[in-house]
Design a protein that fits this description.
Elements lengths: L4 E3 L4 H8 L4 E4 L5 H6 L7 E4 L9 E3 L3 E5 L4 H5 L2 H6 L1 H8 L4 H6 L2 H5 L6 H4 L43 H7 L3 E6 L2 E6 H4 L18 E8 L2 H4 L1 E6 L10 E10 L2 E10 L6 E2 L1 H7 L6 H11 L11 H21 L4
Parallel strand pairs: 1-3, 2-3
Antiparallel strand pairs: 4-5, 5-8, 6-7, 6-8, 9-10, 10-11, 11-12
């Protein structure tokens, strides 16, 4: 690990000023940053520790919207009883992520910006990584192991998978992210925050240098209360998703009034399956229609050798999550 400067500003303006400098990176929980610094993937010239900015802490479960400060801790939010009732998909996606120790350290703002777990990105012995070394190539596409890589949203330059859980719930339910930066404050639809790799996989979000995520807002909808996050993984705890689904249903009797579906563990960015949602609206939710929605969610998948299993697994996860959400929507759970 190389030497670096350390800043701990006490107000947002000072944090923005420090973070806009070349080579500076923002530090919150540090659960990703410190790991990547230890293995030499990131070598920032300065760290800007924002954990003293108390105005970015806390959260509120309102009747029309749920708001989170960027520094709210994953564990605190995931264990909130009011939130478990109002939006189970949010709490489930948090407590199914990482270990208890990491959840107590990690902050929501950092969680949504976490880096890929692609082994070729995280191992500097591989020179070919367009995300780490733009223009160097992609070791995964050049004969490497691809069972952990994206089958949706990848490109000829990168097939790294976005690893987060909470982000799938946010993209499914039209969340927004608030930020402050050198250009002032702005509100960004969460669906627009992350960008597909294309020819520039090293550019992962639309955030500008020095721009700091300050909060997250989720509008309350009928489908949010009858929601569920289902995660399939190699082991029961502390493992990233092989496939996951964040879903919600709003029912009018036996008819689906609104459906929300996002899928994780399979895509380059948080991925909303709108065609699958549309296939359910206006009709009944049955095991057959749930399975069809799962198939539709993966209709455009482009698997690599070793990742074909994600298509069937992912479709089954979507169907299973929908059946649980249906039980919640109709009083069966």
């Amino acid at each position: 690990m190389r030497n670096f400067d350390y800043h701990r500003p006490t107000d947002i303006a000072a944090a923005i000023e420090a973070a806009r400098a070349d080579g500076a990176e923002i530090l919150a929980g540090g659960t990703t940053m410190v790991d990547l610094m230890k293995i030499g993937v990131w070598e920032p010239q300065a760290l800007v520790d924002i954990t003293s900015l108390s105005e970015l802490e806390g959260y509120d479960v309102g009747s029309d919207r749920i708001t989170f400060g960027a520094l709210a801790r994953m564990a605190e939010v995931g264990d909130d009883d009011a939130l478990k009732t109002a939006a189970p998909v949010l709490t489930e996606s948090l407590w199914k992520a990482a270990s208890p120790q990491l959840r107590h350290a990690a902050r929501l703002g950092g969680n949504i910006l976490q880096q890929t777990r692609c082994p070729y990105f995280r191992d500097t012995a591989y020179a070919q990584c367009n995300k780490r070394n733009p223009g160097s190539g992609c070791a995964a596409l050049d004969g490497g192991e691809t069972n952990l890589h994206a089958i949706l949203g990848g490109s000829d330059a990168c097939v790294a998978m976005y690893p987060g859980d909470f982000a799938q719930a946010l993209v499914a339910f039209d969340a927004e992210v608030t930020t402050k930066g050198p250009g002032g404050a702005r509100t960004i639809p969460f669906a627009d925050l992350h960008v597909l790799p294309g020819d520039t996989p090293h550019i992962e979000t639309i955030l500008n240098r020095g721009e700091i995520v300050t909060g997250i807002t989720v509008p309350v909808t009928g489908a949010l209360k009858a929601s569920h996050y289902l995660k399939a993984r190699d082991r029961e705890s502390y493992a990233f998703a092989s496939a996951s689904a964040a879903v919600g249903l709003d029912m009018d009797g036996d008819t689906v009034r609104d459906a929300r579906i996002a899928i994780g563990g399979v895509a380059a960015v948080p991925w909303r399956a709108r065609a699958a949602e549309d296939s359910l609206k206006g009709g009944p939710l049955t095991e057959e229609t749930a399975r069809e929605a799962g198939r539709i969610a993966f209709a455009d998948a482009v698997p690599l050798e070793g990742s074909e299993y994600k298509i069937k697994l992912g479709a089954d996860v979507v169907a299973g999550a929908l059946m649980t959400a249906h039980a919640r929507a109709t009083g069966g759970e």
